[in-house]
Amino acid sequence: MASSTNAFEMAQAQFDHVAELLNLDPQVREFLRWPLREYHFRVPIRMDDGTIRVFEGFRVQHNDARGPHKGGLRFHAAETADTVRALAMWMTWKCAVADIPLGGGKGGVIVDPSTLSVSEKERLVRGYMKQIWKNIGPRNDVPAPDVGTTPQMMGWMMDEYSTLCGEYTPGVITGKPVGGGGSLGRTEATGYGVVYHIREAMKHLKLDSSQCSAAIQGFGNVAQYAAIGFIELLKGKVVCVSYWDREDRAPYTVSKEDGIDPHFLMSITDQYGSVDKEKAKKAGYVIEDAEAWISKDVDVLIPAALEGQINAETVQKISDQVKIIAEGANGPTTPDADAVLKTRNIFVIPDFLCNAGGVTTSYFESVQNDMNFYWTREEVLEKLDTKMTQAFKSVLDMSEKEKVCMRDAAYMVSIARVVKAMQLRGWI
Ligand code: GLU
Questions:
Q1: Looking at the domain assignment, is residue 338 inside a domain?
Q2: pLDDT tens digits, one per residue of 168-204
Q3: Does 383 participate in catalysis according to the annotation?
Q4: Is the domain of 222 the same as that of 265?
Q5: pTM of the predicted model, to two decimals?
Q6: Catalytic residue chosen out of the listed positions 94, 106, 237, 387
Q7: Could you tell me if 392 and 197 are in contact, meaning their C-beta atoms sit under 8 angstroms apart?
Q8: Which atom of ligand 1 is nearest to the CA of 143?
Q9: Dihedral angle over CA of 31, 35, 37, 41, nearest 10
């Protein structure tokens, strides 16, 4: 497989590999290797100092055979059309593996959101919506939060869309704040989903979760709730998380060998995701280099930051103690690193299975918006657990039946479902 770290080439290489295993028709392959539609546009906004800045925005719609395109919006300084294409394609497989009636899409803006004031952020998301509103909608394409975007930003976008089309339309976007059309349980959904998958993997591998430790990369929404879930639901120990240093423009690891307290760390993490290092040190935490998380002697590694983090170089640092890698992030493992993991017999829960809890709860949110009737947090999390457990089981069964790794098995399950929908609709 290709050794590229270009996310879209990576996504295509993974797909090609399984298309080959499935002996998929060449025309269907070509159909699925590319997004159906892409929008590239500019978003001019007035900054607080009166100047105008123009941001570059994208929305990519990969496939909607199973239902409306679905996927987050990333605001990131290093965003590219190819990253958004890859993420849109992974959303198609993610919704299919979770067996929710949605397709794949993704959006992005090239911007470091930590450089914007609150009102600049509001103008940027409203500006983004003005450019794309005619091409999205509850029955067509439904965005959601991702790296660099928040529930509040989703609330503003929903408001802008509702104003532009002249009627209250909560279902145009998910991940909205609770009380503003959002669903209870959505905030913790992706992280908890990761933990439900780890629980199932541990049952399969006959591991006692209360005796297991984990190292987490990142401390955004997914990492925070993966840490809380690992400790509170599985009774395990988390030894580190990692942060991005805005001044040094580099990541670093924050560790505590006898176990971190994610609630404490959240209380000293600011709105841009930076931790108060002095307070952390006083409480016994150690600040280590960027890659310290990956070389920890733990049972579970949870990459929950960005793509390409476990690559040909970093994969060599993984301890022999590691038994499970639970991919909370999208695309954290490059194909060449994946090949190494296979030889080392590490059980990988692939990204679009592992982190499907977020979009599954987004689906529950849109169902509640349509009904105009809202479930309790317990109801949402119970439904989420059922969906994730079923998805895990269907992938594990496929992996045992076809004697392939979990990633290839997840692709097999998803591709078969998408191809079936395309056939049923008469597309192929
Ligand atoms: N951004 C999340 C993901 O990558 C959630 C997408 C959604 O809820 O639509 O899965």
A1: yes
A2: 999 999 999 999 999 999 999 999 999 999 999 999 9
A3: no
A4: yes
A5: 0.96
A6: 106
A7: yes
A8: 9
A9: -160
